[in-house]
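Exercise: predict the fold of this chain.
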Amino acid sequence: MLGKKVNILLLTLLTLLSTAVSAAVNTQYNATVCGSGTYLFGCKQLTSSGTKTNTLGDSTVTLHLLFAPLKATSYTATIEPGQTYLFGCQQLTADTVTSNTLQQVGCGCDSTVTLTLKVQAAPTKVVVGYTATIQKGETYLFGCATYASDTTVSDTLHLTYTATIQKGETYLFGCATYASDTTVSDTLHLAGKDSIVVLTLKVEETPVEVKVQYSSEITTDDTYLLGCKAYHFADPGLYKLMDTLHLAGIDSITIVNLTVAAGGGGQAAVTVAYTATIEYGQTYLFGCQQLSAAGTYYDTVPSLMLIGDSATILTLKVESPVLPDTTVAYTATIKQGETYLFGCQQLTAADTYRDTLHLAGKDSITVLTLKVCQPDSSELSLTVCDSITWKGTKYTTSGDYTFDTLTVAGCDSVITLHLTVNHSDSSELSLTVCDSITWKGTKYTTSDYTFDTLTVTGCDSVITLHLTVNHSGSSEVTLAECDSITWKGTKYTTSGDYTFDTLTVTGCDSVITLHLTIYHSESSTEVVDTCNMYTWHGVRYTKTGIYYDTLQTVHGCDSICKLDLTITLPYQDTLTLEHYYGDRVIMINRHEINALGWKLDSLDLDHPEYVKWYRINAPGDTTFLDKGYYYTLTSGEPLPAGTYYAVIDIEPTGGARCGGKGVTEEYTVKGAAPAPALMPSLARPGQDIRIVNLNPMVQTNVRIYSADGLVQGSYTVSGEESYTIKAAGTTGFYLVELYNEGMKSTLRYIVK
């Protein structure tokens, strides 16, 4: 993108110059394109790297074009279990494949870095030593502590280590300071012996973009030199010039705010002198020179006119760096008897120490808090039976075992266990006996027993007795049978006590005694001559015949019963019922009864007691209602919902030996039907009035009377639930009489 901006700027400048001067101008610049794409150069679209030229009038523009591919870097790192690997802002501790995107050094294009991290299997003895790098402002977790500045820490003393600093920083090791990649060593005297400490120092590059910006003034007769290019301006004004250098992979951008004033004709040689100031470490672009030190520099540019050159004089100043004071504080721990190297000091005691470096006129103070661990050891003696679990490990044999741990201060601690393991004992004994056995002083009559004792070492000893007891003896059987029984091959027909001698399955004597009771079956015959019907053993019989039933005696034996039955005038159980007036009246079918010869024409007057009415409310719940040829409510309302039936019982009369007995079918009243009504009951002369709630199953006769009893009209309705009449033409009270075989009802309406 920067290359494109410079391209457009220079093309604009070249266009301006071509209109003001006649001399040829040669211009060169560099441009970079990330990945694949198209670069616009004049009217050309470029897709490949190389040096390209373009001509504008007498001026030539040279482009050095680079297509930088997007880089993809992959590598593999290995850590040991428990270690942490820092990748970007991620702290990784397990096998993984992850990626991060960085900016390529030197071209500003993206670069993808892919890491494959593997965790090694834990060795028998783990020694952890590694280097980690974090950025300023991040925190690194090491053990139970966190660190945010350069430091070296350890749980135990490691004499070989690696450190990393940023470019421009200084590392203190022994009595020397270092600022570049190196491997150095120092010698300590620890416990009377030499100990060599080896340091591998790495210096990381921290690419930053450097910008140099300043202002200059020239006249229209002068020539201005920036980089390897010379600029001539025909018109006064304010111009901004830019050029980019790539120094050690870092972009250095030079920006000039150039003021062009009106000149004096441009015939003689022109001398341009100016002063510029840069910061320490920056680079100043002067012609084709890259300057970083203070001084006076010269360059000559041929004039665009026919006479005279243009001399440029630069006075360059470099500001001294202003570095802040820095303080680095960290904590380190060593074991008792070890030595810690801190600057020129060899430390062995716990305390807080300081050291100061002078870097570019500023102090860098290092504060060390040194802790000294006191190693610890202890011993434990135990005697157990069979096994013990100690420090998470189960032990089953005697021996000495050690457990490595840390004290509360983080120092090594070794606990030694002197273990003696005595083993418990067990044994088994199998016996087969009769009835019982006395073992270990106790009498036993059933199987499997254990006896707990101790071994000579005091551990449990268990003896298990597997005992099989076969019992001799006798048994008794009590049986009750009908008529006879065959037992043990012998048939018995009388009650008594019987014995049988045999052997058990184990061969022992066994006497079985049978207490036997013999019950005998029975039979009987019953002769019955009766009227209507006869109920025998819960069954109702209405026909003459011979019937049998098998019962059981109180002892469970069969009892065969015979019935010789004669029925005169059989019992009638299918008599029908008649119902009228919308379930307001139910009655027996007198035609059906008279057909049987029961002579009931005057039953309702002379013998109402012959017919009894019942209502079934629920299964097992029957209510007696009344006697009579028919049943109705005195109010004339429909019967309540329920199931109704009648029982007929006629006394023998007139020389007939049997009267009459029967029961009707059951008739269910589902509920009172809606009564007929007039809509409306208050009408105007000649208005339509509807009669509703008629029974469509029967024919209903309708008559309309005036208040003085005169018939106003009559109608017949069949198959309809409603009927429409016309109100009388004269005001007054009117009656509507409804009549059918099951209902007679009178309604009234008013004409007003």
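Check your answer against the key: The radius of gyration is 64 Å.
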